[in-house]
Design goal:
Elements (H helix, E strand, L loop, with lengths): L1 H11 L23 H21 L13 H5 L1 H30 L17 H24 L6 H18 L6 H41 L1
Length: 218
Amino acid sequence: MGTTSKHTHTHTHTLVRPQSCSMHRSYQPLNPVTNRYLQQRWDQNHYQNHRKKVNSSLPVVDNKGMKTPAHIQLKLKKLQLQDERLSVVDRDNRLLASKLADIVCSKGLVDHQNQYHLRSLNADRRREELLLIGRQNQAIYQRITSRQSEHRRPLWLDDWERAERRRDDISRYPRGLGEKHRSSRKVKFAVEGERASSCTDTERDETKQTKDVHFHLI
């Protein structure tokens, strides 16, 4: 019993290492070591420290460019010319504003009213063209109205009458019978509708009279 309990105790405390813990076995150090895992950690720390030093190191040779002189950065001559140009523009604007104010305040000495009527230089020519077009249209209208028709209408009427007679001869029943039948049906339906409406009106009157009599009795 004691041996079995000891065996179960050791079996329950066994740990399963993850797969990542065995990755250090594939690491190949430069020198022979007793523990590859520790050597891998140390090499990684050394490499990270080296990269930090490389990133934070300063160059021995100064490869920066020369600083631009202050007189080139400011460009004092350009600023001076710009100020002079702006001052000239402001002076001209003030002069123009004063002149406009004088013109607005004064009534003016020159009569600037324009009484010229618009007149076209080719009005006569266009009028003649319109008259010519009107005469041409009138002539075309006269030719159209005086033209005799080329269609032989009497012959068409004769052909139509001949065709109607043939249809009457060929037809089994007299023509127009279907139309008469349809018209009689329409009249019949209209009469029946009027009768139905009259019956409904009489029924309404009778019901109204009975209601009035019942009301008087009450």
